[in-house]
Amino acid sequence: MPEAPAGAPVDFDLHGLASIRVLGGTPAEVRSVERVVGPLRGVLDRPADITVRFVDELPLDGARLVGDDAAFDERAFYVLGGRRHARVVVRMPVERIGAGCEIVCRRGAPEVPYLREILNVSVLANGGLPVHAAAFAVGGVGTLVTGWSRGGKTEILLAAMAGGARYVGDEWVYVDADGRRLCGTLEPLTLWDWNVGDVAAASDVIPRRRRAAMRAVRTAVDGARRTDRGGARRLAALLERRGSVRVAPDRLFGSGACALEAGFDRLLLGVSHAGGGFGVTAGDAGDVARRMAPCLAYEHRELLALRQKFRFAFPEAASPVLDDLERLLAERLLHIFRGKETHVLVHPYPSSLPALGESMRGLL
Which of 148, 243, 288, 336 could form a disulfide with 217 if both were Cys (CB 3.0 to 4.6 A apart)? Predict the structure, then answer.
């Protein structure tokens, strides 16, 4: 789609579940929003759930600091970032999140702070459910794969794709209010050195030099972790992220394999364990919902922490959706997951993708 002229309004519609309107944005600023919501541009026929307005100046004269990344004055609450708060200044209406809010950003910010979390809360306020998950479809059957971080969601998705599945989403998947539809975005997939070799198209997409660097990082990380020195272990943690690469799913699988929508027919909980085996067992949807409630609250922890700073700044002000976020998530999970065919996949982490695919053969 051609880029809109600088400053022209640009609308994004997340499958009808929530929407964003960008005002006054340069092409680079619009792309920073697109990295969150995906290339889902359209023309809204309804008020936007989130308006992001970019401005040249956003004065902070006289504002009082809350920690090192927030401030407030008599009129508004601000998110700050960068050296001496010079790079990022955002007027953030915390009390309106989930109820139609306008975020005002001073130019120069590399991204809109908390935009993903605010989008998730808007979906929730509109009756849908944001899930930390992956999703794919096989033969018209849509599967939502969820679990705690490092539960193998992306690896299960990659294994399913190798078996002929269609990509729906990764990292964040959205379920409509009826619990019948899974919706995703073209969120880049994180590939690690241990699974790059199992993805057929990876060698065409990831340069050889980058793959060699990822293997070198993994060797260094493994060596550091075998020592008993705390400094080496901290170094391993810092290095580890360099052992991965993020690739857009349409580059990896082709746009024809990326559906972005599917029915919600099956629920799969991925759980990694210290053993060496794989196992798929029948599960209980209510149990998965109760497990995922604290997980989803944890994934929004930074936004919830910002809410506490806002409450310090404005003790009498309420933020109705955020103040009730954990309860809303728990109730929506139980409602939407109820009655879904459910399985639990237990596996070692990391796992080879062929072994994961073999363990899922009965499901696929």
Answer: 243
